[in-house]
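Service request form, structural biology core

Requester: graduate student, group of Dr. S.
Request type: structure prediction, single chain
Budget code: on file
Notes: please return the result as structure tokens.

Sequence provided:
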Amino acid sequence: MTKNTHESDVAFIQALAELLNKNELTELAVKREYGEDDSLEVRVVKQATVIAAPAVTHVAPAAGPAPAAAAPAAAAAAEDPAQHPGAVTSPMVGTAYLAPEPGATAFVAVGQQVSEGQTLLIIEAMKTMNHIPAPRAGTVRRVLVADGTPVEYGAPLMIVE
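Core staff response, request fulfilled:
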């Protein structure tokens, strides 16, 4: 920190924390210079919480009981969407948006066919809108995030098969 303690530093750090929350930031770093050998460097970091919206899927009832060998594999895929082979994961920390602007139609919907490179959603990071493309052609099976929710690096966003 500094050689001398400054009473205003505590208020300054609290103000940074409030600024972090007010502007929905996850990290803020500042360096204050008081003199030649006296400075304060502060890094305030907020752990973002990833909230995955429950995916709505309509499945027709099976004609008969499922094979016993398929049940554990299906249960494991349902429990952790990140392990699904068709999972599209977040390449960065940010806020996920399913449409190009508020009130607009979403880029994709469940059941829609997508081509490789087609925009699935946007992740805003540091006021930059990053288009997330489909890694392969296929059908959108599940949307795992809600519009406007924070996402972490590697978090599953969608399932495209």
